[in-house]
Amino acid sequence: MSLAISRVPTPVNEPVKSYAPGSPERASLASKLAELSATQTEMPLVIDGKDVRTGKTGRAVMPHRHAHVLGEFHQGGAAEVQSAIDAALRAQKGWAALPWEARASVFLKAADLLAGPYRDVLNAATMLGQSKTAHQAEIDSACELIDFFRFNVAFYEQLLREQPQSSPGMWNRLEHRPLEGFVFAVSPFNFTSIAGNLPTAPALCGNTVVWKPASTAVYSAHFLMQLFREAGLPDGVINLVSGSGGDVGDPVLASRHLAGIHFTGSTKVFHQMWRTVGDNIDKYVSYPRLVGETGGKDFIVAHPSADPVALTTAIVRGAFEYQGQKCSAASRVYVPSNLWPKIKDELAALVGGMKMGDVADFSNFVGAVIDGASFRTQKAAIDEAKASGTAEILVGGEYDDSEGWFVRPTIIVTRDPNYRTLCDELFGPVLTVHVYDESEWVQTLDLVDCTSPYALTGAVFAQDRYAIEQAMERLRNAAGNFYINDKPTGAVVGQQPFGGARASGTNDKAGSILNLIRWISPRSIKETFVPARDYRYPYMES
Ligand code: NAD
What we know:
Elements: H1 24-37, E1 41-43, E2 45-47, E3 50-52, E4 57-62, E5 65-74, H2 78-97, H3 100-115, H4 119-130, H5 134-160, E6 170-178, E7 182-186, H6 192-204, E8 208-212, H7 218-230, E9 238-240, H8 245-253, E10 258-264, H9 267-279, E11 289-293, E12 298-302, H10 308-320, E13 330-336, H11 340-352, H12 372-387, E14 391-395, E15 399-400, E16 406-407, E17 410-414, H13 420-423, E18 430-436, H14 441-450, E19 454-455, E20 457-461, H15 465-474, E21 481-484, E22 501-502, H16 513-516, E23 520-528
Parallel strand pairs: 1-5, 7-8, 7-10, 8-9, 10-11, 12-13, 12-20, 13-18, 17-18, 20-21
Antiparallel strand pairs: 2-3, 4-5, 6-23, 14-17, 15-16, 19-22
Helix pairs in contact: 1-4, 2-8, 3-5, 4-5, 4-7, 5-6, 10-11
Bound molecules: nicotinamide-adenine-dinucleotide (NAD).
């Protein structure tokens, strides 16, 4: 019972620590990296608050040193999925019946634990298991996830305050119920913050969850689950079931109690899930909410008036941080013919000079790509460009998977506006540049709009205000997150709500009230104080 109309603390974005030489955070993170590197971690499933070992295991390795095994994770199938669904359904009544402040407290506590004692653990796990540098881990597994927890709590309070008007003689109310059933959260490898947000955003709203992390990110997911438990999340509210996509996904999607899917990953997998839900539609108790943030082919388009130095910096940071494995990473760039000679050499020098290697060496700017499959995708694109008559490699083009899955940051330049790597998502450190005739600005905007099926992020660089407005207008539907004179990556919770449309997703803006709205099913309540006692209306009188 709640005997107050509470206000949650006003959220503020978590400050990013620098990890500069001599800083206390650097020493503390280095020691956690050494500790985890020297430990073998067993990663069970967690169902109804209990560790579950199936004996069918997979290995979590360091992408930058794939011979180094961080530990073994247990993989679930139909039986474990059924236990997880049963646990989620059992837990839902009690969890949903808690005062909302109690649920909010769990996630505010998780935020404070992550800002404090868990910061090094999650950052080190993300560095080792997903090959992120200290800075990339800090802005993801620490700051962004802390922001998700704190801002979502504030958005949830705002959502609960959303109430209708009442005419005289009655009181109308909206009750923001959780969905009936359980939510299936399916997370990608590339952001620990997304892995943390996908199960917790629905849980905050009173839902219970079956969560399947990506097999290449089970290591950080294991520590996330520890964080949730230490924050006081009751048993059964979030049930962690690792395993192959189909082994876990198929039985989950066949459950009549599936109330929603909170997915981030590739377009192909989301299409498959959507199709399966369609095939199963007669089985479900309710229409499942389908929320998916999917692939991208994010662009930077420069106008002839663009500042060449700002443009170069945005290309370098936007395309290559975290090896181009951000959903928002620039992967196609359109440069006018007047600017290309001014930026080409500098771009090649900066990208060619990027230090690549083990992320535990803080002087490196990039690590390895996530796995052998991604390595082969990047290698194929590079080999294709080397053999092509319409494209050439400006810088990079080397790869070596002997120790880790390393691909040198690479820029392909092509005259062909439909060249394959301008259209297909590669999700790695391979950027394609198309140089257009400076007189063809408007045609180029149309080209940017039509070249790929995706519409996630995009950026325009221009000093000319008319050009900026033209780009805003013509590219209205080409990106869900649009940047003016800035790189297309680095969205901050509470500042740039994130998500795209077309083949990039349902655009339910992670880290905003718009996302939380998908996890509630409102009930309208009308109470009449003095009910009518005669069915006849005045117009019927003689
Ligand atoms: P992925 O699609 O390979 O995997 C995502 C998740 O889906 C994993 O947990 C995987 O195990 C699971 N999965 C696979 N098949 C399944 C099935 N049949 N049923 C249920 N689950 C299944 O994606 P990834 O390689 O982990 O991540 C990279 C992709 O994610 C890229 O396409 C990237 O653009 C996208 N992404 C998008 C955003 C965004 O906000 N739009 C953010 C991050 C990543």
